[in-house]
Write a structure and sequence with these properties.
- The chain is mostly helical and about 120 residues long.
- It is about 100% helix and about 0% strand.
- It is rod-shaped, with a radius of gyration of 50 Å.
């Protein structure tokens, strides 16, 4: 009976040692896995901050460019309107000059034709 009790006690101690070893190994694996995960999360958070800063810079640059080009478009539109007005005035002046020349030529033709017929 003592022998049997000793075997059970030894088996129990060995089992307990094995369980403690397995538990220690499992805890070590968990800690390593946790550390890897934590490092990955920290790396991703750092990358996110960097990307957010880049995005903010790009948006600021984009907004500045939008305002700059809006101003350029307004300026070009105004120049275009001014050019159209200038060309219309030039066209009207040229038209007036042509009419005056035409009237002058016709008047001259009429005088010549009346002078010849008299």
């Amino acid at each position: 009976m003592k022998y049997l009790k000793k075997i059970v006690l030894d088996t129990s101690r060995n089992s307990e040692k094995d369980l403690k070893k397995r538990l220690a190994i499992q805890k070590e694996e968990f800690d390593m896995s946790f550390a890897r995960s934590e490092a990955l999360i920290n790396e991703m958070a750092a990358e996110k901050r960097i990307l957010q800063e880049r995005c903010d810079k790009l948006m600021k640059n984009f907004d500045e460019n939008v305002e700059k080009y809006k101003d350029q478009i307004k300026s070009l539109q105004q120049k275009h309107l001014d050019e159209i007005k200038r060309l219309r005035k030039a066209q009207l002046s040229a038209e007036t000059v042509r009419k005056q020349q035409w009237v002058g030529n016709k008047t001259q033709e009429i005088r010549v034709s009346q002078g010849l017929s008299v």
